[in-house]
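Practice problem 4.
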């Protein structure tokens, strides 16, 4: 505690924001795995289970659009704490007996969880932009990469945690434990997080939720295609293929995907070191790394068509895709906080993550439909095309000239 008290106020706030984000992410990943496994045990098909998360994604789009405006008006501390509180409510809704866990009820709980998740994420990413000076671009890149990468690694840990809690305490016991733990985090955050963090003196009007920045708009479009490209084959098509075609057990599918997400998060945290040769990234880097990523799903699709070394080519392709996608995602996450206007940072970040949520929604829907009609190879070709679109849009992003890197 003595060491913490010697830290600057901004660093302490960064640590608190990060701790909030970590705690929320653990429950978010665990809850997803709990719902998938529990409702699969109740007899739901994989596609039915996937549809339980439809409102989670839809309300993520809405929340990011509105959440940035709320953050600018009432402060990022309020939106972050609201996200934590809503997640507690969502968890509490799932404590009812199985006979009351109707599809509509679970979808409503997932809708609240989606709102909570994106309020929390938007607040965390916006807060970092305010805690790092604009001239310290290198420091900002590192802090964003650490926050984003650790979040994704912890989401994978949450997958494991959900399965473990389900085995030890059962569905309701696991949900109750997470609700209690997150309530304690929420109480601490209410007391310690700055009350004026991110609050705009200008009180922006609702029409300002739509970004007027060309850079933010282009980056948001690139982000939409990037995440649609991931989820079009990763969300439904891949786990169903591993289970139904390759004959993997459910626990093996879950463990593999959880390990992939953890590795993806670790690489994302290390992105500043991976891209160090190019200095602080700009739009040119976003284009180059996206074009490299676009080759991976196309190569996997060709290997599947030729029946070349399956399933080894698929698994190797997944690993390469994870590394390159992590770098692309980290670059985008840095660029948005770099481009965001300090006077209304949450507005720009909220708009950007609205596009991110739209990409996830598009990818999720296409993943089930395209895989069901044409198979995994078609999903992979669509993924490659989406990444090329992302790279083309990134050509329109600004190139920096001589931005200081900070320490």
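Answer key:
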């Amino acid at each position: 505690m003595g060491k913490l008290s010697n830290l600057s106020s901004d660093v302490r706030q960064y640590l608190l924001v990060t701790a909030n984000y970590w705690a929320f992410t653990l429950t978010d990943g665990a809850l997803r795995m709990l719902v998938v496994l529990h409702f699969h045990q109740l007899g739901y098909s994989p596609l039915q289970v996937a549809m339980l998360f439809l409102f989670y994604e839809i309300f993520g789009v809405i929340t990011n659009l509105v959440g940035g405006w709320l953050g600018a008006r009432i402060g990022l501390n309020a939106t972050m704490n609201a996200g934590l509180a809503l997640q507690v409510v969502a968890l509490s809704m799932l404590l009812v007996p199985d006979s009351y866990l109707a599809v509509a009820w679970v979808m409503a709980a997932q809708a609240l969880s989606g709102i909570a998740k994106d309020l929390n994420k938007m607040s965390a990413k916006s807060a970092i932009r305010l805690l790092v000076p604009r001239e310290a671009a290198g420091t900002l890149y590192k802090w964003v990469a650490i926050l984003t990468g650790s979040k994704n690694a912890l989401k994978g840990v949450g997958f494991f945690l959900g399965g473990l809690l389900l085995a030890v305490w059962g569905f309701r016991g696991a949900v109750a434990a997470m609700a209690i733990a997150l309530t304690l985090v929420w109480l601490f955050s209410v007391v310690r997080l700055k009350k004026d963090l991110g609050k705009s003196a200008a009180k922006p009007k609702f029409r300002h939720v739509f970004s007027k920045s060309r850079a933010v708009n282009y980056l948001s479009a690139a982000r939409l295609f990037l995440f649609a490209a991931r989820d079009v084959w990763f969300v439904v098509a891949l786990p169903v293929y591993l289970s139904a075609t390759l004959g993997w057990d459910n626990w093996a599918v879950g463990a593999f995907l959880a390990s992939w997400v953890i590795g993806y998060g670790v690489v994302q945290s290390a992105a500043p070191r991976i891209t160090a040769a190019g200095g602080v990234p700009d739009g040119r880097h976003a284009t180059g790394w996206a074009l490299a990523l676009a080759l991976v799903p196309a190569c996997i699709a060709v290997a599947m068509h030729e029946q070349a070394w399956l399933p080894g080519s698929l698994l190797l392709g997944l690993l390469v895709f994870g590394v390159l996608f992590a770098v692309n995602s980290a670059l985008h996450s840095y660029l948005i906080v770099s481009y965001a206007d300090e006077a209304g940072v949450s507005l720009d970040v909220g708009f950007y993550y609205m596009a991110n949520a739209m990409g996830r929604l598009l990818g999720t829907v296409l993943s089930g439909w395209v895989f069901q009609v044409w198979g995994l190879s078609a999903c992979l070709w669509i993924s490659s095309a989406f990444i090329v679109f992302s790279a083309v849009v990134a050509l329109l992003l600004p190139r920096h000239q001589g931005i200081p890197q900070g320490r």
